[in-house]
Protein 1
Amino acid sequence: MSVVENLPAVPFMRAGLARRIIRRRRQAGLTQAELAKRAGIRPETRCRIEKGKETAGTVVFQKIHRALEVAQREADALGD
């Protein structure tokens, strides 16, 4: 077992981050597969992150963030 797994705050942080990603993905009107494709990450990686089973690196989260930002702007533009 790794040191990270012994820290109770880490699973809590992963779960909170997963919930935020799921909420933003749904608000942007993206499916799980669409988010993975737009972010340029493997669907398996997106799945592990959304389940709270993996803490990805900064680069992966930046890709997800950018993909969600673009999708949200597109969704907002269609709503106007």
Protein 2
Amino acid sequence: MPSLKFGRLTRVAQVRGVDVYVHWSIFAIGALILLRSARKPLTTVIGLAAYLSLLIIHESGHLIMARRRGYQAYSIAFYPIFGLARFERPDSRVDRALIAWGGVLAQAIVGIPLALYAALVGYTPFAALNAVLVILGGYSLCAAAFNLLPVRPLDGSVAWDLIPAYLEQKRQSSR
């Protein structure tokens, strides 16, 4: 494995041909959180991993949808509060909207069962497991809903174009 070279973005892996980059601040924030976690280090590490997993799930959803629609996936970059998936520019409005929905759908696939479990069964006696339930369940669904606001640079600025774009595409194909 090549050595890590810390810069603004550090390449940490390549998964199925997609380069994975992490912003330097994530390493710094992670280190600070771990240094301050003397009381419950396991819960802190698992909570931090769950939060990073939330970002990975969301951005992977975009890339999976891009590939399903026939576009090349290039990279994912992770920053402290967001990620950025890079892929070939879609040809159609429908494809752009579907790819925007990909991240939210990926979060929903993971978040809904976890949130339902917490709501119906309750929390466990294990703080670390509860951190996963909260972060990948309820918090993830709240973040997905926020991300659907129709404001740039959020996904909602493109995702909500799906219905008008689909109707336009259907109208053009019926001519």
